Amino acid sequence: MSIFNRRSQGKDLAERLGAREDELRASTLYRDAWIRLKKNKLALFAFAAIVVIVIIAIFAPLIAPYAPETQDLKNRNQGPSDAHLLGTDSLGRDLLSRIIHGSRVSLMVGIITECIAVPLGVLLGSIAGYYGGKIDAVISRIIETLSSFPFILFAMVLMYVFGTGLVAVFVALGIIGWIGLARLIRGQVIQLKEREFVEAARAAGASDLTIIFKHLIPNCLSTIIVVITLDIPDDIVYEATLSFIGLGVQPPMPSWGSMLAESMKYMRDNPGYAIYPGLALMFLVLMFNTLGDGLRDALDPKLKNL
Amino acid sequence: MLKYILSRLGQAVIVLLLATIVTFVLVNVAPGDPVITMLQKRADQAQIDRVRRELGLDKPLINQYFDFLTKAIRFDFGNSYSNRIPVMQLIKQAFPVTIKLGLWSLLFAAIFGITVGTLSAVFRGTLIDKFIMLLAIFQISAPAFWFAMMLQIFFGLHLKILPVSGMSHPLWMVLPVTVLGLRYGAMSARLIRTSMLDALSQDYVRTAKAKGVADILVVMKHVLKNASIPIMTMLGGMLRSMLSGAVVVERVFGIQGMGKLAIDAVMSRDINIIQATCLYSAFLFVIINLIVDLTYGLLDPRIRITGGAK
Amino acid sequence: MAQEVLIQVKDLLTQFRLDDGLLTAVNGISFEIHKGETLGIVGESGCGKSVTALSLLNLIEPPGKVAGGEILCDGVNVLKMNKRELRSFRGNQIAMVFQEPMTSLNPVFTVGNQIDEVIRIHNRVSSHEARERTIELLRLVNIPLPEQRYGEYPHQLSGGMRQRVMIAMALACNPKLLICDEPTTALDVTVQAQVLKLINKLKRQMDMAIMLITHDLAVISSIADRVIIMYAGQIVEEAIEREIFTNPLHPYTEALLKSIPSLSKNTEELYMIKGMVPNLLQRHEGCLFAPRCEYAREICRSVEPSSCLVGNTKVLCHKYMDDWEVAP
Predict the structure, then answer these.
(1) Residue A299 within any structural domain of the chain
(2) Which chain B residues touch A240 with a CB distance below 8 Å?
(3) pLDDT at A306 over 70
(4) Are residues B59 and B184 in the same domain?
């Protein structure tokens, strides 16, 4: 048998062993986490509530009693009534229907923003942590610089660059969202890369990319899950804030933030207009935060400072 | 310690330099011609060219950047495009308002957070703890601007005991400070609780008790000094995100601070003000970070003596 | 040797209320510590030896609780003391050295400050006097340049040095009993011997009793006068040191001795005790060691053994009870 063959066989074996170790650790980790999570009634409730909200958002046109854009100028700023459960807004549109449709914007922002932020954050964070040295210095300085702007101000400037509207919101929040995740992943990778299974893989000749993608990132998975769950509510609030300022989602598209901005003008006559969309917003954010807290306690108690 | 301070200072300067680049690039890749915005489309081409020359906008971008940088170092950000007032003058009016709001809120948040967080940690697992943590997560989940509106409706419009907005009433700060203070107080209470619990479960706490140190002293001396290290980091982060929160709260309460300045500038595409507010807050953040890092060094002998290799 | 009793433990029962049930860490044990003797407590991790030590100082924290028994120190029940009495008792009458010197010292205070603290809690002395005494203590535990070490932080010292600081801190008020919980486990082998020798020297010098907790029989053999073997929260054998090594009675002690890797005997394989430590959350019938015992009979699995005296050795095993020969 040639030396080359022997070496690749050794590599194969070591890699298989490494992977098996990862798998074993992972399977017990997630089973234990699931057992812990099942005991957390609050987190389970939050999860169920989020599922319900997602279903409502998907079937919004079927569930909402009115079309969100239908105006009824004779019945403007009405309080709750049988016809309009939560009353109407300044153009006589049904508040409940607009809130139901508004959930689509919030959920979409949460999901799409994370789809941009997570790959960026995981990749840059693990590269910085794994390679260290100059690469780390560059990425770390970029992270520091971007986080030296107040997030909301930075988001506003990005909206200035990309223009207003839903897509611009996704891009702007995605660009901001990777920063925190990258910082966390970098820290974890720095710790993980000293561990035996990484040494073993390296000794067996695994390439840097293999180590990062097959050994390091899977080991950060629980952190990533927790961070996503806790970042989604932040994204939702950022979108609402941007729309509230007037830089985000533009009317007539119903977004909770822009509804609240509009309601500012009618706070005296129609307080319900200001109360209900905000309650919806708070409830959704609260549910994500509760689920995130539960997941964190179950998956990764080390992250309690998050 | 000196080495630690110098390396932190060096990093701070690099970050500030990068911040000027980011700001400059962002503003320049944005669509639309600022000169046209400024002249509000009434001007002819000759006029546009003249203004562009005056502002140095006809030079290559790299020269423009160095112009911008050399002026920014002297805190000169040019004039506002919309009303020709020097940007620094606008900032000098707005900044003290925001800082005053921020510092009062920080004081509120720190007192509230440390008291409530420590209580929660000491009574961990009891009803007190659960109640405090429930209120905290509610407070954190309510967006600042909406909570501000709710306070306006209740205290301003319903009870009519506090001003709804503006800065003329002597009690104008009460509601904004309550909004920011409660929000960041709740956040810090959660963090202080976990840092305290973490410190409480350490072996040295058991050692202290085995030595016969009184419980209250164990918490006040051994635990708090250790917990103060993460708490300090958190306070810095809190001050930063509080400035972020102030932007929206200023908007809701009609306060003429940095936030309002920034929002108006983005709305009217006034790039000199946008650049100035961005850099000004980045500068402030870097200073806060530096102070936090240095305090960190004072609190933690491991950093002070080994020079910050974390 | 003086047989005057210093500490008397009667039916000590310490339990932990965990999510999955009630864990009995120490199950009704009784023993005595005499003035000036070295008592070794040996057992695997989780057998309750550290919990016993913490119980002596009434330092069990929730969810744990001393649920029964008495601990008499010079006739006073430690478990009945109020907070003030406990404070002046801990660190003064009984002091303790923990396993991990790194984490047991507070990282943000100088070692001098931490030793001063215990002196000033228990004595009315000026800060200057406390400092003098601290430096004297550091010298006593063979720390070079004590004046300089006084102002240093734990992370600046080596592991052995930190453990010496812990010992100095424990000795600060001339305790009657020094509890050493695995004092050498976290240290390098060469440093281990030095620290043990130091403890032994100090014991004679200061005329105090020592309770030495370890999982390593070899550690005991060099300095203990009497040895207690613990298994699953119970004392299974109690004898003078020589008896344990020459004439072990309990099957568990026998197995422990066999599993010491010996250099003289050219054995091919290391002896391992088969089976697992019982889960203390579950209820058990019979002898707790029975599932792992090579002598176990029917009676061992169904009836709980009671303590009996063979010579001067106390042992908890059916083998030494009257009915063993006829037992099923």
Answers:
(1) yes
(2) 143, 145-146
(3) no
(4) no
pLDDT the model gives residue A301: 63
**Taking the CB of residue B100, how many other CB atoms lie within 10 A of it?**
14
Based on the domain organization, do B230 and B122 belong to the same domain? Answer: yes
| The model's pTM | 0.78
pLDDT in tens, B265-283: 888 888 889 889 988 888 8
> What is the pLDDT at residue A12?
47
- CATH code, C230: 3.40.50.300
Which residue segment(s) compose the domain that A258 sits in? 28-72+84-303
B223 and B141 in a common domain:
yes
AA letter at A210:
T
Q: Are A155 and A117 in contact (CB under 8 A)?
A: no
Name the residue range of residue C124's domain. 110-167
Contact C90 B212 (CB under 8 A): yes
Local structure of residue C118 (DSSP, 8 states) = H
Mean pLDDT (whole number) for B24-32: 82
Domain residues for the domain of B60 are: 32-74
Interhelix angle for A41-58 vs A271-299, to 10°? 130
Q: Is A126 helix (H, G, I), strand (E, B) or coil?
A: helix
* Residue in chain C lying closest to B207 (CA): C104
Tell whether the model's pLDDT for residue A18 goes beyond 80. no
In the chain, the amino acid numbered A10 is G
Confidence band for B4, pLDDT divided at 50, 70 and 90: confident
Helix (H) or strand (E) holding C42: strand C38-42
B22 part of a folded domain: no
- If phi > 0 it is left, if psi is from -120 to 50 it is alpha, else beta; for residue C73 that is beta
Mutation target among B146, B187, B241, B284 for the A interface, most CBs of A within 10 A: B146
Judge if C116 and C97 occupy the same domain: no
Cβ neighbors of A63 (< 8 A, separation 6 or more) are A56, A100
Number of domains in chain C: 3
Residue C202 lies in a domain: yes
Chain A CB within 8 Å of residue B87 CB = no
Pick out chain C residues at pLDDT < 70. 1-2, 261-271, 326-328
3-state secondary structure (DSSP) of residue A94:
strand
Query: Which residues have C-beta within 8 Å of that of residue B248, sequence separation ≥ 6?
Result: A152, A241, A244, A245, B144, B145, B148, B259
Q: Is residue B179 part of a domain?
A: yes
d(CA A234, nearest CA chain B) in Å = 9
Any B CB within 8 A of C78 CB: no
